[in-house]
Design brief:
- The chain is an alpha+beta fold.
- The protein has a single domain, classed as Translation Initiation Factor IF3 (2-Layer Sandwich).
- It contains 2 helices and 3 strands; from the N terminus they run βααββ.
- A 3-stranded antiparallel β-sheet has the order 1-3-2.
- It is about 35% helix and about 40% strand.
Length: about 100
């Protein structure tokens, strides 16, 4: 998996787009703690952990999607995220599945 357009020294054919998606939410206790932290400022570690976990799940699902398509690699891998509500985040990992020649 690479965020670049080309894999150095490798020729490949494009198979298609691949995705890994997840939506995550923290529990009520952590949301209350995050609310207190919002008052005084600084990093809200519960949400950093939420996004880290969501990113890792999205990457795993992207890899599985690529393997299911018979890909050897994924190029141009990117992330996108969005808040669905005050306590839910969705993360998408996406890229182009390729097969080495």
């Amino acid at each position: 998996m690479t965020t670049t357009e080309h894999v150095p020294g490798r020729d490949y054919e494009i198979i298609g787009e691949v995705f890994g998606l997840t939506t995550q939410s923290k529990n009520v206790v952590r949301n209350i703690g995050a609310g207190f932290k919002n008052i005084v400022g600084g990093e809200i570690k519960a949400y950093t952990e939420l996004l880290t976990e969501a990113r890792d799940i999205a990457i795993d699902r992207l890899r599985q999607n690529a393997m299911d398509m018979g890909a050897d690699a994924v190029v141009m891998m990117r992330f996108d995220s969005d808040s669905i509500s005050a306590d839910m985040e969705t993360v998408a990992a996406y890229g182009t599945a390729v097969k080495f020649k």
